[in-house]
Specification:
Strand content: 5-15%
Distance between the termini: 37 Å
CATH class of the largest domain: Alpha Beta
Order of helices and strands: EEHHHHHEEEHEHEHHH
Helix content: 25-40%
Structural class: alpha+beta
Largest sheet: 5 strands, mixed
Number of domains: 2
CATH topology of the largest domain: Alpha-Beta Plaits
Amino acid sequence: MSVTLTVYGPIRPLHSGHYGNWAPNPAMRLAQLLATMKAPDGTVLVDGWEDDVTPLGAAERAALAAYPADDEAERLQFQLGSTDGAGRPRADLITHPSLNVRGLRSLFVGPEARTLIPDVAVAELDLRLVDGNDPRRQVDKLVRHLERQGYRVVAEAPDSATRVRSARLVQVQSDSGYPAGRTRLDDPAARAVVAALAAAGLGEPVILPTLGGSGPAYVFTDILRTPFVALPTVNHDNNQHAENENVRLGNVYRAMEILAAAAGARLDRR
């Protein structure tokens, strides 16, 4: 789900030579505020962030232990000097709810930069939820964290009276989001899909208990009470949601075989 944080400074941009060290800079305050949300190793510091997460079962833990991790190869591919997570594998980390800063804005950068104190600073966040998280409760946890940092939290753009009475002011806007959905790996449907892929001669599938994508799986798992099994088939370097997003034709053809095999899975509910 998406959350927008807007930290307010002066009603209009001010000259930094005349008002620097006096008028609070919302960009600096936003940076300080964001820094309170995560530890240096990437751990989310918002109180209760993982309190309602559904624990993994034995089958899920076994799948994580058997996962052929390629973290080091990907670290080098992405030219990362280090990774978050205190050394834990990526496959394990995505089973936990995340808090990501997906964009920042405050006045100008590059040739357009001016000697100004900004009037506002904006951060766009995305919250990745896992099974057990309630979208509204997760936002409420974030709001309480902001309040503990000394901020007055408002839902609408503040009027003049609110601005002058608030030492620290942030607007929080969020979409409705939706909960995550997860089917146990020892569910008959999950076992049937794995067996169908093996029977079709497609090799042994790599199994993960959770995938980090946006899709209303909860409609099946929570509302229809129906198992949901995701079958990712694209190339790992497809630049999802970024520049030059792509899919290799070989993966498209392979996907046809995988989906055809899964469609023929024989489900035994015994």
